[in-house]
Design a protein that fits this description.
With 99 residues, the chain is mainly alpha-helical. The chain has one domain (2-98). The protein has 2 helices and 2 strands, in the order αββα. The chain has a two-stranded antiparallel sheet with strand order 1-2. α1 packs antiparallel against α2 (62-98). The longest helix is centred in the last third of the chain and has 37 residues, at 62-98.
Length: 99
């Protein structure tokens, strides 16, 4: 029975390590926009008046919103991958310490 448990822990460690690698690969493949357009709006800004470097109102960028979502996805995938790696390491430590 002990050798079966030992083998199951080794298999779990190998599977978790593989899952970690897949998740980190997926995280590395998340697309983040290279260029980001910014659209500014201020209700009391007269039409035709040139913009300055001052903050003039609300700013919106569809690419920035897309990048934000991509970074959230990437962060979540990195967290899952790190958890799998930690669990795989714990399985391997358990096998070595129990042997």
């Amino acid at each position: 029975m002990g050798s079966l448990f030992h083998m199951l822990v080794q298999i779990a460690g190998a599977l978790l390590a593989a899952m970690s690698a897949v998740l980190w690969f997926m995280s590395a493949r998340v697309k983040i926009p290279k260029m980001m357009r910014l659209y500014s709006h201020r209700a009391d800004f007269p039409p035709g008046m040139p913009y300055t470097h001052e903050v003039i109102g609300d700013v919106y960028s569809p690419e920035l919103a897309e990048a934000h979502l991509a970074m959230l996805r990437q962060t979540r995938l990195n967290g899952y991958a790190a958890s799998c790696a930690a669990a795989a390491a714990a399985c391997q430590i358990w096998v070595v310490m129990g042997a």
